[in-house]
Design a protein that fits this description.
Blueprint lengths: L1 E6 L7 H10 L7 E4 L12 E9 L13 E10 L5 H5 L2 H9 L3 E3 L2 H8 L5 E3 L18 E5 L8 H5 L1 E4 L9 H18 E6 L2 H9 L4 E4 L8 H5 L4 E2 L12 H4 L2 H9 L11 H35 L1
Parallel strand pairs: 1-2, 1-3, 3-4, 5-6, 7-8, 7-9, 9-10, 10-11
Helix pairs in contact: 1-6, 1-7
Length: 310
Amino acid sequence: MEYAGFRYDYLSNIGDHIQSLAAEQFLPQVDTRLRRDSLSIHTGTDPVLLVMNGWFSHTPELCFPPNDHIIGLFWGLHVTDWNNSWEHILKPQSLEYLRKHEPIGCRDVETMNRLKEEGIHSFYSKCLTLTFPRRKAPPKNGINIFVDADHIPSPKEIKKNSLSVSHRIPGQLSERMKFIYARYLLHLYKEQANLIITTRLHCALPCIAMGIPVIFFGNEKDYRISLLRDIGLKINKPLAMNGVGSTSAIFDTDQSDIKRFQEQVNWYPKPICFEEEKNQMVSTFKKILNEKLLQFSKKQQYSLICLKQG
C-alpha cells in the first residue's frame, strides 16, 4: 500500500502545509499527493493511506465522500460551517465512508458532537500540529515574531525587537515551494522566537508544541479555534480599530482605547506545558495507524486466498 499526503493547489494559507508536515512526520514516506478539496473525484484505483488531518472543505461537493480507494485515517478533522460542508459530509454516502473508517478523530468538540449525533464513532483528537517536538532551549538572542498580527497594537518593548511574517502566500506557487516555506517558518519559530504574537491557529499550535510562549488573538466563539482554549491558551479579543486595514489604523484609534486593550493582554506569557498529553496523542495515533495497516494487510491476504481458490 502507498502513503498519500495532501496538496493544496491554488490555495494561499501555509497553515495547510504545516498540518500536512505534522501528519507526515509519522509516515515512512509520501508516495503521492491528493488534492484535499477534490477527494471524491480521485481517479486512482490502487489503495492509498491518507491522514485526514485538517479543515474541510473549500469544495465539499468534490470532496465528500472520498474515493473508496482512499483509506482515511481521520485525526484532527474539522468540518467548517463557513459553507455547505456539513450538508455534504452528512449525506448517506459520506456517513457510510466515515463508518467504514472509524474511529474519526476530530480537531474540535463541535465537529465530534455533530458526528456522534449521526451515530459515527468519533473522538476528540485535537490536531497533529501539537505533536511537533519541543525545542531543547529558548534562543539566546531571540526575537518576538508577529504572524499576521501587524494590526495588533503591542507595547513598544514587545515591538522593538521583533519580526513580522505571514502565513499568506501566493496561491499560484508550486506545492514544492509552499512546503519549503512551511518548513522554513517552523524552523524560524523554533530557533529564533522568544515570543509568538499571532492570529493564525496553525502558527499557535505548533509553537505551543515546541514550547514557545504564544499570544493569540481571535474570536473565542469560533469553534474552529476552540481547542486553543481547551489546552490552556487564552484567546484574546482583537482591538476594534478605526480604519482597520489601513496603515494608519492604530493612529486613528483613540489612544486610551489602545492603552486599555494593552492592559488586558498578558504580554509575557509562559510556554504551555503540553508534553504529557502530546505523548498520549502520539501513542494513540501510532496505535490507530498500525491497526489500519494490519487491517489492510489482512484484507490483502484474504483477497489473495480468494483469487487462488477461484
